[in-house]
């Protein structure tokens, strides 16, 4: 099997100069913004962040219907699945260098394997979670003022023993960088830097209550539009933003379109990127440009194929609006 890193090498060399420009954006924010709650800043994220590499030779994941598992015995079916399972082109390292700070993670054990190894999954299995965490931690070691959000929000074929295994992997990967659960409004860059924290883990499973470094999933709501229609998506994003100030949490605006079964059936070979993403991303990016961060505004915004447009830089630039607000308030 060709390694994920090997497949990405050529692209990394071509994109390096562009990607590196946002590698330290949090550490470079103006002093005035470092005391803002992270829940009030605009932060770029990726959807199905790990899906830049999936294994066509592995079994179909337990997140898929039985009918799909049967069909996948035909090798062509897995090739088609890959076109619809991959939602990112960049590795974790490349995403981090481009400015992405929120990662949407779905994980699973692998049927038939002994032990409790956990993998990323989206239809097909991705890399081992421990390898992804190691790659992320290496970046954090080199960029000590950057803060990331890891949102473990879907678990498949996992009992409590699998969860204990995964939680121990998380703890051993990041150690003292893990931010303990705190009142959301207290968590600023200044707070994180003072405590030398860099990682907030959101864990959508009851065991989170037993660990001080696992934030409950309800602190990271990510309402999902579940539509192929870009106009319905944008209306949904507006509606959910209006509601967010009631909750005192972080907030994810999922600026993504979701294919229906018939969408896939009509566009089998074209895949997600060519069917839904390419033609709608400019309109989605225009919506992003019109947003403001803050208590009633956007917080984390996620996208598919974050490198296709200047997504991360566009989201990061929204934070300048907070400075303009401060200046206006001072003058008045």
Distance between the termini: 63 Å
Helix/strand-derived category reads: alpha/beta
Q: Name the beta content range.
A: 5-15%
For the sheet with most strands, the description reads: 9 strands, mixed
Number of strands: 9
Radius of gyration: 19 Å
If helices are DSSP runs of H or I spanning 4 or more residues, what is the number of helices?
Answer: 12
Q: How is this structure best described in words?
A:
The structure is a single chain. The chain is of the alpha/beta class and 332 residues long. The chain contains twelve helices and nine strands. The chain has helices at 4-19, 66-71, 75-85, 92-98, 129-142, 160-174, 189-195, 230-243, 261-266, 271-289, 311-317, 320-331, and strands at residues 43-46, 102-109, 118-122, 124-128, 148-156, 199-203, 214-216, 252-254, 300-303. Strands 1, 2, 3, 4, 5, 6, 7, 8 and 9 form a nine-stranded mixed beta sheet that branches. A hairpin with an 8-residue loop joins strand 2 (102-109) and strand 3 (118-122). Helix 1 packs parallel to helix 4 (92-98) and helix 4 (92-98) runs parallel beside helix 5 (129-142). The longest helix has 19 residues, at 271-289. The chain is globular, with a radius of gyration of 19 Å. The termini are far apart.
């Amino acid at each position: 099997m060709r390694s994920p890193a090997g497949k990405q090498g050529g692209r990394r060399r071509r994109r390096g100069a562009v990607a590196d420009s946002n590698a330290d954006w949090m550490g470079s924010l103006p002093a005035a913004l470092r005391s803002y709650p992270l829940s009030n800043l605009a932060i770029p994220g990726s959807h199905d962040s790990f899906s830049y590499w999936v294994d066509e030779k592995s079994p179909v994941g337990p997140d898929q219907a039985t009918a799909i598992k049967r069909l996948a015995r035909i090798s062509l079916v897995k090739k088609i699945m890959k076109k619809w399972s991959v939602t990112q082109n960049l590795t974790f390292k490349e995403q981090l260098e481009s400015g992405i700070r929120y990662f949407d993670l779905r994980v699973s054990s692998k049927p038939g394997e002994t032990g409790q190894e956990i993998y990323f999954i989206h239809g097909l299995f991705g890399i081992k979670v421990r390898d992804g965490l190691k790659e992320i931690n290496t970046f954090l070691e080199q960029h000590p003022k950057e803060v990331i959000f890891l949102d473990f929000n879907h678990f498949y074929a996992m009992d409590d023993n699998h969860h204990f295994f995964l939680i121990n992997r998380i703890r051993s990967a990041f150690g003292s960088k893990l931010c303990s659960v705190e009142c959301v409004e207290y968590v600023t860059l200044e707070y994180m830097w003072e405590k030398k924290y860099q990682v907030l883990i959101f864990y959508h499973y009851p065991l989170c209550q037993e660990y001080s470094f696992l934030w409950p999933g309800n602190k990271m709501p990510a309402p999902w539009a579940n539509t192929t229609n870009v106009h319905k998506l944008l209306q949904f994003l507006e509606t959910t933003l209006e509601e967010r100030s009631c909750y005192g949490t972080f907030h994810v605006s999922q600026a993504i379109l979701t294919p229906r079964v018939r969408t896939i059936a009509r566009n089998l070979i074209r895949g997600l990127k060519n069917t839904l993403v390419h033609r709608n991303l400019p309109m989605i990016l225009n919506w992003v440009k019109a947003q403001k961060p803050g208590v009633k505004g956007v917080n984390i915004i996620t996208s598919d194929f974050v490198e296709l447009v200047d997504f991360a830089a566009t989201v990061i630039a929204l934070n300048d609006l907070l400075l303009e607000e401060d200046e206006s308030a001072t003058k008045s």
